[in-house]
Amino acid sequence: MNFRLNFILLFIAAVLGGWYISQQEPENAALGQLIKKDGTPDYTGNRMSTSVFDIQGKPQYYAEADEIKHYENSERTEFFNPFVNLFDKVTALKQWKLSADHAEITKEKILNLVGNVKLQALDPTSRLQKIETDKLMVDLNTQDISTESVVKSTGLGFTTTGTGLKGNLKQQVATLLKDVKSYIEPTVIKETNEQNKTDSTSKDIQ
């Protein structure tokens, strides 16, 4: 009789022990998910946007993307299918529009764009109107740009292709480094020069 009772008690204890352990495993698994692993982002978000201002409070750039990942340790932010606006430092107006498949901004404010990169001027009178390439680096502090990839650049009265590029968006200049081929539209350049002379004359009269 005592043997049967002890057996029953042991059986009940084993069942309760198994139930207790099974309850602890999900809790431990949930706790493990809360602990950040090396190399994983500190936070992620979908359809998010961010605006960054300089120390004078003027807008420096605006970015939005389908997905954003931020890493606190490296102060690095990733953007998937990004759209970026760059602002003029003096007027605080939108000056350039950039898009790509993927982008990354480092803590030094270096913007690296990869895949179907397009840079477009929002000012129709800008000498440099569009750049298309596969990779592009933009220094958000100075607006210097560079790439080693094949580039197609379009401006007022010209279209140029080549490999490698260096330039500056504030100065509206971009120089292709090698294998350069250019197509010039003299009519457009003539009309632009005449318009600039007219604008200059108007200012002098005023």
Low-confidence stretches: 198-206
Please give the oligomerization state of what you see. Answer: single chain
- Helical stretch count? 2
Strand order of the largest sheet: 2-3-6-7-5-4
Which fold name fills CATH's third level, the topology of the domain at 43-184?
lipopolysaccharide transport protein A fold
What Rg, in angstroms, do the CA atoms define?
29 Å
Given helix and strand content, the structural type is: alpha+beta
Percent of residues in beta strands: over 45%
Fraction of residues in helix: 25-40%
Can you say what the CATH homologous superfamily of the domain at 43-184 is? Lipopolysaccharide (LPS) transport protein A like domain
Mean pLDDT: 79
* Distance, first to last CA: 117 Å
Kindly provide the name of the CATH class of the domain at 43-184: Mainly Beta
Biggest sheet features: 6 strands, antiparallel, barrel
Relevant terms:
six-stranded antiparallel barrel; disordered C terminus; 2 helices; alpha+beta; about 210 residues; globular; lipopolysaccharide transport protein A fold; about 25% helix
Summarize the structure.
Helix content is 26%, strand content 50%. The protein is an alpha+beta fold. The chain has a domain at 43-184: Lipopolysaccharide (LPS) transport protein A like domain (lipopolysaccharide transport protein A fold, Sandwich), CATH 2.60.450.
